[in-house]
Every structure is written in C-alpha cells, then in structure tokens.
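Summary for the lay section of the report: proteins are chains of building blocks that fold into shapes. Here we show the chain for Nucleotidyl transferase domain-containing protein and then a coded description of the shape we predicted for it.
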Amino acid sequence: MRLILLDSPKEVRGNFYPMAFSHPLWELRCGFTSLGQKLVDKVGASDVAYFVADYMADSYRAKAESAGSPVNDSSILDGDDLLVVDPRLKAESFDIAANVPSEVGLDEQGSLLYARITKDDLTRLPTDEIGKFITEAKKKLPNVRSALPRWRYIWDLVLVNAEQLTADFAAAGQYGIEGTLEQPNAIRGSKKDVYIAPGAIVHPMVVIDAEHGPVYIDEDAQIHPFSRIEGPCYIGKKTILLGAKCLK
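The coded shape description reads as follows.
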C-alpha cells in the first residue's frame, strides 16, 4: 500500500499561517517529530508520496525526492492500493485497516480527510491529475462522514506540544547518558527523565532541568556553556545551542 500525503486546501491552510506559507502542513512539528512523520509511523508505510501546492512544488521536490519520495507526480496514482491522507488528521487516532473496501472520509464541509482506494478501483478513476482524481473518488466511491480528531489551527499544536513531548519521550523508551556530559553540570529532577544520545556533547556549566518534564538531546547535538534546558524539551539532531535558554 502506498501512502500519499495530500496538503490541505488553501482555505484550511490559512488556519496554519504563517508557518504553512512555505511548508506543507505535514512539515509542522508537535513533540519530537513532524505531523507527517507521525502519520507515516502510524500507518507503517515505506512507500510515501506527496502532493503540495504548485507554488512550493519545486522547493519541496528538491527536499523530498532526495529521500526517494516523489512530489506532485501523478504517475504514483496507479499500480498499488492507495491511502490518501490530509495531514490535519491526528496520527494517534488514525486507524484505517489495510485490507478493506474503498472509502472516502470527508469533513463537515465535504473536504477529503482520507481515501482508502484499492488497486482494482483505481481503474474507475482518472489518474492524470490529483484534483480530478480526488473529485471523481468522492463521486464514485462510498463516502463516510469522518469524526476523526484533527488539527484545526496552528495554536492547537502549540497548546499540546508539552504534552506531546512527554508522550514521545515515554514512547522512545530511552534515558541516561550515551553521549558526552562534561563537568561541571547540573541535572535537576529525575535522571530517568533525561536522555543524551550518542554523539551529543553537553559542555560544562549547562543546566538540564527535568523537574517538570523530560529532556531528550538527540544525536550530535552540541549544548554550549551557560545554556539552560527545561523539560519537557526535545533538542533535535545536530542542533547547536550557544548559551541558550530553552524554557517550557
């Protein structure tokens, strides 16, 4: 089965401006990972393709196709069972069985949230352009009104970010020091709420405060002196903090 992430309509994307001006919605991040990565992980897909607004297609293609994922390529609409997903859907609540008949899930306004389309049903649909493909899928395949939880505004991501960081830390199941933690340093709270990944370097005079939430410092990050990190917090791969204050 091929997973296709289809960026939301313009009127929906406006609820996520300014962050969504130059990024598809699935690039927005909540917790450790992006909304798109959460959906990919939930579905368990290894074959992923993307459809974005035309104005950002060239720039996004340069990024995604280097990782082997096609962008705005209608040829991928044929040849395999498809799961087309709008990135507004919350991954933790998204459960669509792989081997079920075709169906199209719609929101209250009739916009597509997801479409599960079998390879056999693809013969009934035009596959030369994504807009026509979705329009005909809604006409010819069974429709369901979907009540699946979804992101509605950019501030939704901000408001639950701390909670999501804590959940992602627990899901990762890692704690302890695998990188370099130089002395002197201060770790407040439980050391089971701190993880320093291999290759990460925490310089002297850094405070890691996990009293109110976990702190995850990912691979090859560099935390320079006089930085303070308060949990819940995730420091991404190869990040460099120079005397930074990362406060909840």
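Put simply, here is one thing we learned. The two ends are 39 Å apart (CA to CA).
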